[in-house]
């Protein structure tokens, strides 16, 4: 992509972010003949390159990679692309659509311009735009709890985004804090390498990999679950704060069953409540968290059963999951030194940082207020967020629908402004 831009300072649309969401937006804008430019502060697919561990792969089947105008081109639609192939897919997409991406340019401030539009300050000068699309997801700053500072200094601490492989960790046991997708998969990676793992188990749900002869994602897609809109979900907008289900595409795909890991020697703990030097204290919620995750798992199995019965689908029978292991009496504390813990991986997610966007488009937690990515500030949009509109939003499978909708809104605002300008000239 262009490393030394000499572009005009004004654009109809500026897209911030050169990942799959920004590239998909570019595709839709080009289809409509709308002048635009993408600013990417690092490189295309940067987060995929730098914030994933070595054995990382998709947890959804390759067939769900449906960037607009560029469906998955490989020969394993029911496989799970590893990290390097994901990066290659996104980079190939950028080339195929000739996206006007300028890499290595950070957007440092966005302000509304008197009379309409926006002033966009970048690391290479100031630009203006009639409209701006924010395509930088919501995972900006690694989130590590403040009490992490109370751990002894000789225990190494990293965020999950910095983990690469077990060989890069210090000797000794590893404490993984968080059981969302990243935490569970990193714990599995360490466990399979022979490392002793202590996993702090939170409230994330889990999903079967294969049930009754098909990948659960295939069933859920057929059932329309990825088309479920935020306003139709029982939790409404609160669903945007829910953790993703954990499972893996590793080695062809499989369940992640923390109870099985426990049988194999992994130590599971409830929520980490406090740290006092090497003393770790845990809440008495491990059994509840495991049970709730399994309830979601078997709930998905039951929903698939009902779908099969309602549609008269021929599918092999399969029993529902039954727990393999149950925790014993609660052990409220652990001495990290006595347990031989030499490192901690904080799989505690990210927080959003939109502080450079100076517009009244955020709530009290400084998160975007929008409907399907459209804010109350005319010409300002967000895309690539989880549950932007549906469960499929934020995934490769849902980005085409989201960007098509936003591109139509961009085109409407553009037509309105052109008509106003023409009327002003004629008067």
TrEMBL record:
SUPFAM superfamilies: FAD/NAD(P)-binding domain
Membrane-spanning segments: none
Assigned keywords, A-Z: Oxidoreductase
Cited Gene3D superfamilies: FAD/NAD(P)-binding domain
Pfam families attached to this UniProt entry: Pyr_redox_3
PANTHER family, sorted: FLAVIN-BINDING MONOOXYGENASE-LIKE PROTEIN (AFU_ORTHOLOGUE AFUA_4G09220) (PTHR43539), FLAVIN-CONTAINING MONOOXYGENASE (PTHR43539:SF78)
The name this protein goes by in its record: MSMEG_0569 family flavin-dependent oxidoreductase
